[in-house]
Write a structure and sequence with these properties.
The protein has 2 domains: about 160 residues, Rossmann fold (3-Layer(aba) Sandwich), CATH 3.40.50.2300; about 180 residues, Response regulator (Rossmann fold, 3-Layer(aba) Sandwich). The strands form 3 sheets. Strands 9-8-10-11-12-14-16-15 form an 8-stranded mixed β-sheet, with helices on both faces. It has a 6-stranded parallel β-sheet with strand order 4-3-5-6-7-13, sandwiched between helices. The relative contact order is 0.11. The protein is an alpha/beta fold. Helices cover about 40% and strands about 20% of the residues. Helix 4 packs parallel to helix 5, helix 6 packs parallel to helix 7 and helix 8 packs across helix 9. The structure holds beta-D-galactofuranose (GZL). The site of beta-D-galactofuranose (GZL) has 14 residues, from helix 3 and strand 11.
């Protein structure tokens, strides 16, 4: 312990052997007082200072965002879009949590956000089911929840204020209608289509919607849907799944991949098995259909390795942010907000597809279009 005597004014004080001149006296006195309070006092002053620090209310709107993981290029683009929208410059304080594709991690994150008394909770759920309890806790805490990207399957829709994402069943229907139109233009009998499905994470809205559309189209058009298995939206798992499909079936001519990273894995497996990917299925090429239209996915579309890439827009940050601004301004918001999405190919034989009474143009990908895209 430093032995020192406090003194005032013209006296000097010694801290150990050191001699402190008056000119520094005030400074050292403040330091000594603070230290003194720490050593001898009740730590009230220092504690007040700490207390003041903890009491400082955060600037702006406090957001707790539970992101499901970082499994794909799409997810990376989605995270970047959300972080850019909820930046300090835009008037937000963002608590971000990566759930590493585990629902239990996301539930823990939501409970942490409730304890932190955030103003809003954003949830990008890894799968649709299992959210009632924790969303009820958020509701009981008076914290509005906005669902981002995939959907939650809850009986009580008041457990979330809104959802922003894609129509996954429509995405699948567009991809399948493009294939149906392609077979007609090329005079390929539907019974000659032998298709395998590398699914996304089982239980995710995107997987449920895209798989359902494929099953409906295969039944309606008379395609042979040989097998379905989850590639978990990752390149590595999809490569493994595609390898097993190739060992089991020798007549595969179409692969329906539920995201670009799975398409990359499927292409690796097909090429390492000595086969060729492309649209000329009548001459032994294996056609790849994919989703997400990431830069890497559209690059493979431009070079003909992916025959059709169906857009799934990850840039949801601005839409979610504008929704929060509406809530802050007391405006009513839509319960579900879908984002606009297109389909991309290099094959010019199909220029338009129709689903119901709606026509969807096919965007023929070019380097300029690729360069102009933000993800
Ligand atoms: C779709 C999203 C899916 C993407 C995958 O909105 O949930 O999850 O298609 C991502 O790339 O992993």
């Amino acid at each position: 312990m430093t032995n020192f005597k406090t003194s005032r004014y013209n006296e000097t004080i010694s801290l150990g052997d050191g001699i402190v001149k008056k000119s520094l006296l005030c400074l050292s006195l403040v330091a000594v007082c603070l230290l003194g309070v720490v050593y001898f006092g009740s730590v009230v002053k220092v504690d007040d200072a700490i207390q003041l620090e903890e009491d400082v209310t955060p600037d702006g709107i406090v957001i707790g965002f539970s992101q499901l993981g970082a499994e794909s290029d799409w997810r990376t683009a989605n995270t970047e879009s959300m972080k850019a929208a909820f930046s300090e410059e835009n008037g937000y304080e963002l608590f971000f949590d990566d759930g590493q594709q585990k629902q239990e991690n996301q539930i823990m994150a939501i409970r942490k956000f409730i304890l932190q008394e955030v103003d809003y909770i954003l949830l990008a759920p890894v799968k649709e089911t299992g959210w009632e309890t924790v969303l009820q806790e958020a509701k009981d805490a008076g914290i509005p929840v906005i669902i981002v990207d995939r959907m939650v399957d809850v009986a009580d829709e008041s457990l979330y204020v809104s959802w922003v994402g894609s129509d996954f069943e429509l995405e699948g229907a567009k991809a399948c209608e493009w294939l149906n139109t392609y077979t007609k233009v090329k005079n390929i009998p539907p019974e000659e289509i032998h298709i395998v499905n590398i699914q996304g994470t089982i239980g995710a809205s995107a997987q449920i919607g895209r798989t359902a559309s494929l099953e409906t189209a295969a039944r309606k058009n008379g395609w042979n849907l040989l097998a379905m298995k989850s590639g978990e939206y990752t390149q590595a798992k999809a490569r493994e799944v595609m390898g097993s499909f190739l060992r089991k079936y020798d007549n595969i001519n179409v692969v329906y991949c539920e995201n670009d990273n799975e398409a990359f894995g499927a292409i690796e497996a097909i090429e390492s098995a000595g086969r060729k990917v492309g649209s000329d299925i009548q001459n032994g090429e294996i056609m790849i259909l994919s989703f997400d239209t990431t830069k890497a996915g559209l690059t493979d579309t431009l070079n003909g390795k992916i025959a059709l890439d169906t857009e799934c827009n990850p840039l949801l940050g601005p839409r979610v942010e504008s929704m929060i601004q509406k809530i802050e301004n007391g405006e009513t918001i839509e319960k579900k907000v879908y984002v606009e999405e297109n389909i991309f190919s290099t094959d010019k034989s199909v220029k338009m597809i129709s689903i119901g009474n709606t026509g969807y143009p096919v965007t023929i990908i070019t380097q300029d279009i690729l360069d102009s895209r933000t993800y």
